[in-house]
Predict the structure.
Amino acid sequence: MPSAPRSLHAARFFASGLDLDLVRALFERLARTSLGARAVRELAPRTDDDARAALRRTAELVALAAAGDAPAFGGVTDLRPIHAALLEFHRPLDRDELAALSMFLSAARRLCAWFGERATAAPECAKQSVGFPELARLRRELESAVDERGELVDTASPRLAKLRREVRELDDHFPELVA
């Protein structure tokens, strides 16, 4: 019977020799985004090729950061909890969820462009944005209907604009109506 590849033996050794949960917990505290924290929680031993590719991406980012050119991760958030809640409760997104989605879409666009502009200096990182779904239409529609706080704007629909105008008129005339 053929023996397991050397990399599989190494993965088993390191997984059993380390308290992987403790290592994950230590690194999770260093994550800069909720998405990064989830990636650390889901971290598992990699194949040799996958580990080498991850190390190349890390080296590229470290070199860029050392040169004062680090990506801005503002708006990067883990959308899985929002998606899970939508599936479980069958409800529309609330204000905070809309704001998180809007910020994520803007961050995704910004980071894909950032990595694309640095394809020469960081080719392994740039490859990560290749094939990323085109979300421009969704982002434009969301930005035209929701403000930065996640509130629907009056122009989101003609009916909403009419209803909000009627509410303002009632608010203005309320003292007269109860007097």
Observations:
- The CA atoms of residues 19 and 25 lie 10 Å apart.
- Residues 95-117 form the longest helix (23 residues).
- The mean pLDDT is 87.
